[in-house]
Amino acid sequence: MLSHYLKSSVEDIDNLIELTSKDILDIKEARHEVIFDRTKIKNDLIKSFENKKALLDNELIKLVRDNPNKSLEDILDDTQKKMLDAMKNKLSILKTKNKEYARFVVTVSEFYNTLLDRVFPRVREGYKNYNHKPASFLQVRA
Q: Domain range holding 117?
């Protein structure tokens, strides 16, 4: 079961890397709807990975408990060790991709917030509260 969980976890991470790479390309092209559509798929993959990782953790704990005099390195076979290393490396790649994507998201968010502030200027109330006041050309007087 351990090998199955490892393989399945690595597949989930690969899929997340692929989807995040697509998100990066799409955000550069301002195809935001495609990104929003992909969000549910990514959330499902993240939940799937978290469940598999929990199962993987339980399997590793069982192995260590059943073999108290051995280290984890001695318990795992070569393929399992390679798959565990692959999982670590792919998680690192995913982290890098997510950081890159986050930079684009922040930039686009700042752009839209600036645009919104120009159309509907905000007045600061206290430290955190901002209220949009109606733009002069959008005011209606009865």
A: 2-138
Query: In whole angstroms, what is the distance from residue 7 CA to residue 90 CA?
Result: 12
Helix axes 2-28, 32-66, angle to 10 degrees: 160
Could you say which DSSP state residue 121 is in?
-
Q: What is the CA radius of gyration of the chain?
A: 23
**Nearest one of 28, 33, 4, 12 to 94, comparing CA atoms:** 12
Report the predicted TM-score, pTM, of the whole model to 2 decimal places: 0.80
**131, β-bridge pairs:** 123
Q: What is the pLDDT of residues 6-46, one digit of tens each?
A: 999 999 999 999 999 999 999 999 998 999 999 999 999 99
Picking from 55, 53, 46, 47, the residue whose alpha carbon sits closest to that of residue 94 is 46
Structural domain total, the chain: 1
CA distance to 43, 109, 112, 117, 136, per residue, from 125 (Å): 36, 22, 21, 15, 20
Place of tokens 């929003």: 36
Task: For tokens 């005099």, name the residue.
Answer: 69
